[in-house]
Specification:
heterodimer; A: mainly alpha; two-stranded antiparallel ribbon; B: alpha/beta; 10 helices; 37% helix; binds adenosine-5'-triphosphate; binds magnesium ion
């Protein structure tokens, strides 16, 4: 029964983890940028949810899309005004830029909010769903459900709207997309904004489950990275599979090696996976 | 059948420091099929890229229906009714035929109904595409891809369709079919500027022909006049 409980614990955060990773995967797949800022954006979303709860009593699980929407606007502006200028430059330059932005945002948040760990304390506490021999923590289930809803909405947007088609066109062939009348720079900006939307939402969803602090941003970035590589870059189903896989791996890692080594096991398995399937479980070109 | 749709005067363009087109002058009349021929590397593709806003002008002017579009963006060219079917088709990998065609309508503002009607018109014009509307466009045969690229261009509801290399790499039977289709497209009201390396096809399809050489438009005339010119035949027909 212990093993079943550990498995369920892992699956319960799967949708939340997918939500952490899907924006990172989108930005990597479409803009070809490894967005080092992603972890800090998650933390920022967590703070928005924390203060929304503290001052207005808004439930973070319901607040998540709103946090995402606010940050979406900032993400579009940041990409259009700053990152766009280095889009045509080598990969390392964009990596360096987002690394710099990450330092800036982390330190701004340190100055504003201090390094203290904060967490949304819901009242009444969400508690657990008691299934007899195992229990399922309710807060994780809420986060996973909302996360999966947001991911599905993103998938539908990309698959069935003109804008979604334009994102894929820009990814595959910039000039051809431009000839069809797609504004390439603007499309990049909105795609980046969507990545930020998902990061902000994920941050709000986890604010009642995991501690929020600027010093936690690197941890969330690592999770996003591992999930994308496990699931395979450039696909939403890949991020979802990777999210559930990391949840389960961490859960067993914590059981076998102790909680502080939960992510270690994930990295070890990741290296093993890369040796066998370099493109990840569902990896493919582009993004859909 | 009257009026000038596109007028290009003294156009110069190129890539960065490399100038490729030194002087292009040409005119496309409303309702006409105009061909641009010339040897490899003459600058035909480069000229078309400038005529759809992908390359900045060094000099010269582009008028579309009398409006000066020098320095305009690709989006503006599309909005003013110029659609470009690029060399090599450039369909979007990972998207179905349907999605590629829908992208052709990206800048249209006349509503879902009109777009849907045009989509059905394309499937009627190219029944092969209708059979394959759910297939990844880049997995089709070369001929089918060219049909899809032309249909995608037409989905913009353009007044002028620029086609770069219609027949390249295609079987003669498919080319004949495309030629017939383009005559219908013209009859339906879309003028065409065609870049074509097969001079025989260009002369068959076009009303008026421009010859480009080393970045300059060096000759022009009605298709039958150019077809009767022994120097053209010697230079471009390989006989
Ligand atoms: N991206 C580029 N950068 C620099 N030079 C280029 C570029 N593309 C083309 N050129 C040069 O411009 C010249 C004209 O090329 P262009 O493709 O316009 O010729 P073309 O008439 O279309 O030839 P073809 O019949 O082979 O298609 C060539 O000398 C080519 O090397
Ligand atoms: Mg060419």
């Amino acid at each position: 029964m212990l093993w079943l409980q550990v498995l369920v614990n892992g699956l319960a955060v799967g949708g939340l983890y997918a939500c952490i990773a899907v924006g990172f995967s989108l930005v990597w797949g479409v803009l070809n940028i490894i967005n080092i800022l992603h972890g800090s954006l998650i933390v920022l979303g967590g703070y928005l949810a924390f203060f929304a709860h503290q001052y207005w009593g808004i439930n973070p699980f319901l607040f998540a899309p709103l946090a995402g929407a606010v940050m979406f606007a900032g993400g579009v502006a940041l990409q259009y005004c700053v990152i766009n200028h280095v889009m045509a430059r080598p990969f390392l330059i964009t990596l360096l830029l987002t690394f710099g932005l990450n330092l800036f945002l982390d330190n701004s948040m340190l100055a504003l909010f201090s390094a203290d760990y904060r967490k949304v304390l819901l009242n009444p506490a969400p508690g657990v769903f008691d299934l007899g021999s195992i229990v399922v923590p309710a807060d994780r289930i809420y986060a996973t459900l909302v996360g999966l809803v947001l991911i599905s909405a993103l998938a539908l947007l990309l698959r069935f709207t003109q804008f979604g088609r334009a994102i894929i066109a820009v990814r595959m062939d910039r000039d051809a997309a431009a000839l069809l009348g797609v504004n390439v720079r603007w499309t990049y900006a909105v795609a980046f904004g969507l990545g930020v939307f998902m990061a902000g939402s994920a941050g709000a969803l986890l604010s009642a489950i995991f501690p929020i602090s600027p010093v936690a941003s690197a941890g969330y970035l690592s999770k996003a990275f591992v999930i994308c590589v496990i699931g395979g870059l450039g696909s939403i189903p890949g991020a979802v599979i990777g999210g559930f896989a990391l949840g389960v791996i961490e859960s067993f890692g914590a059981l076998l090696l102790g909680p502080e080594h939960a992510l270690t096991l994930a990295f070890v398995l990741l290296i093993a996976l890369l040796a066998v399937r370099p493109s990840g479980l569902l990896g493919r070109q582009g993004f859909a | 059948m009257t009026g000038t749709l596109l007028k290009v005067e003294g156009l110069e363009t190129g890539y960065g420091d490399i100038q490729v087109v030194w002087r292009a002058d040409l005119e496309v009349r409303q309702g006409a099929i105009t061909a641009l021929i010339g040897s490899n590397g003459a600058g035909k593709t480069t000229l078309l890229r400038a005529l759809s806003g992908l390359l900045p002008l060094r000099n010269g002017a582009i008028f579309v229906s009398g409006r000066d579009l020098a320095g305009a963006s690709p989006q503006q060219f599309v909005e003013h009714g110029v659609a470009h079917v690029p060399e090599g088709r450039r369909l979007i990998t990972g998207l179905s035929v349907h999605d590629n065609l829908m992208l052709g309508a990206y800048r249209r503002k006349d509503g879902k109904q009109a777009i849907r009607a045009d989509l059905e018109r394309m499937y009627a014009l190219f029944p092969r595409l209708a059979e394959r509307r759910r297939q990844d466009a880049t997995t089709m045969s070369g001929g089918e891809q060219q049909m899809c690229a032309i249909a995608r261009g037409l989905m913009a509801a353009p007044g002028l369709l620029l086609i770069d290399e219609l027949s390249l790499g295609l079987a003669p039977a498919i080319v004949d079919q495309l030629v017939t289709t383009l005559e219908r497209v013209r009859a339906d009201g879309t003028s065409i500027l065609l870049v074509e390396q097969d001079v025989g096809i260009a002369l068959e399809l076009a009303d008026f022909v421009y010859v480009m050489d080393q970045g300059r438009t060096v000759r022009n005339g009605p298709a039958d006049e150019i077809a009767a010119d022994p120097s053209i035949i010697a230079a471009y027909m390989g006989t």
